[in-house]
Specification:
Length: 389
């Protein structure tokens, strides 16, 4: 006889794993988390730079980032395992023209309880001695931000889910969802059908294919995203935190032991790929461009040694805001995908609110705005995921 769960969550990246945990924690009896890979965090979550910062221009994401940070800070107590969060601060170098908009964002963020400010020249010269100050109009500073370990974080949620009695099955690909009329009732694996009160589609860049199995459209791009890890002699001053520059559109995230992840920020070119079949190694031109942009701002990178590199995937929505929540007109189904390249840091907070929405059958207006329904109704948020304002 087919098994029945109250919720089946498809996709054990950070979004699905944290959602499964919060559903179980919120009182749901039988919760099953599925992934087709061999363990949790084996998709793009594994490759995340996992920068944890709060700088968004829409309150809904600032709140999600703040809620998440509380969880990053208290993960050991909350989940029984640590997520590797290092509260080392976050700096964002701005050209003079971007300072007023960043200040408006910060004014809003401060009303929500965030400690953030723009450092003037007199201060950033002292606080960011590793940065070339040429052309910098101001530096956004969030002292309580930092970075986490994306695999450890996801494993911590998986551990807590299992401790509470939730189930995880890996190497378990969901082939189709099953829908009866306006209700999703089950998921089909290779050799079994599992009935579900609710199915959560958290399949990252593959979510749109899963949605299509029940006739739902989803505007979602899969684009290649590259990062490279470089080693710098330890004697050279470098940021021990996460540092972004909006002037060059690049970032550098400390890994410890003189190692740094270098990547490109917004704006940049996005190359759409087939998420089932894409090149996973770095392109030479990425290596040069990402290094050149970073070394302009962080001159101590000069002569750094390339240690490793990779290409992964971003799942990008039309407005760079994630899809979180049920859709109108279809029951027993919710989505959590479309992290758009910044979804790690907000996933713990968003998953808690999504779980509440599923458990209570309702949510607040602000959070409901993250449902895919906004796209279906032609409504979009402005900006690139509210990353910069
Ligand atoms: C290089 C890189 C750097 C990044 N840096 C940052 C950063 O600094 N800060 C930040 O906040 N965000 C960052 N991001 C974005 C962030 O990592 C992602 O938004 C987030 O990890 C997405 O998690 P997810 O759980 O939604 O999806 P995924 O990690 O894509 O997980 C989806 C899971 O679904 C599984 N799956 C798919 N289809 C099926 C199926 N049919 N059946 C069963 N399982 C299935 C996959 O195997 C996968 O494990 C970065 C991303 C990349 C690639």
């Amino acid at each position: 006889m087919a098994e029945t769960f109250d919720a089946v969550v498809v996709g054990a990246g950070i979004s699905g794993t944290a959602t499964a945990y919060h559903l179980k924690k919120g009182g749901m009896k039988r919760v099953l988390l599925l992934d087709r890979e061999a363990g949790v965090a084996n998709g793009p979550t594994r490759d995340s730079a996992a920068v944890v910062r709060m700088h968004y221009s829409e309150p809904v994401l600032v709140r999600a980032a703040l809620d998440s940070r509380e969880m990053f800070r208290n993960m050991k107590t909350m989940l029984g395992k640590d997520g590797g969060f290092k509260e080392r601060g976050w700096f964002l170098a701005l050209p003079p023209g971007m300072v007023p908009a960043a200040q408006r964002n910060i004014d809003m963020q401060r009303t929500l309880g965030l400690d953030a400010r723009i450092l003037p020249k007199s201060e950033f010269a002292q606080m960011t001695p590793w940065m070339n100050p040429e052309g910098v109009g101001g530096v956004v500073y969030e002292p309580g931000s930092g970075y986490a370990d994306p695999v450890q974080t996801t494993e911590a949620f998986a551990h807590a889910l299992q401790q509470l009695g939730g189930e995880i099955r890996t190497r378990a690909a969901c082939r189709t969802l099953i829908r009866h009329g306006d209700r999703v009732v089950a998921v089909e694996l290779d050799d079994e059908t599992i009935h579900a009160g609710t199915v959560v589609n958290a399949a990252g860049p593959w979510s749109k294919y899963l949605a299509a199995t029940i006739g739902l459209d989803m505007e979602l791009r899969a684009v290649r995203e590259q990062d490279a890890i470089w080693e710098v002699p330890k004697s050279r001053p470098m940021p021990a935190c996460s540092f972004s520059t909006a002037i060059e559109a690049a970032y550098c995230r400390a890994l410890g032991d003189g190692r740094f992840i270098l990547g490109l920020g917004y704006p940049k070119e996005y190359h759409d790929v087939d998420p089932y079949n894409y090149k996973r190694t770095m392109d030479d031109d990425f290596r040069m461009v990402a290094f050149d942009k970073n070394v302009k701002r962080l001159p101590n990178l000069q002569g750094a040694k390339l240690l490793s590199s990779y290409a992964s995937l971003y799942d990008i929505t039309p407005d760079f805001y994630p899809y979180v929540g049920p859709r109108e007109g279809i029951s027993g189904y919710a989505e959590f995908c479309g992290g758009s390249g910044h979804g790690f840091k907000i996933a713990p907070g968003l998953s808690q609110k999504l779980a509440r929405w599923i458990l209570d059958g309702r949510t607040d207006k602000e959070f409901a705005g993250l449902s895919y329904d906004r796209i279906a109704k032609g409504k979009r948020y402005g900006g690139l995921g509210g990353n910069r304002g």
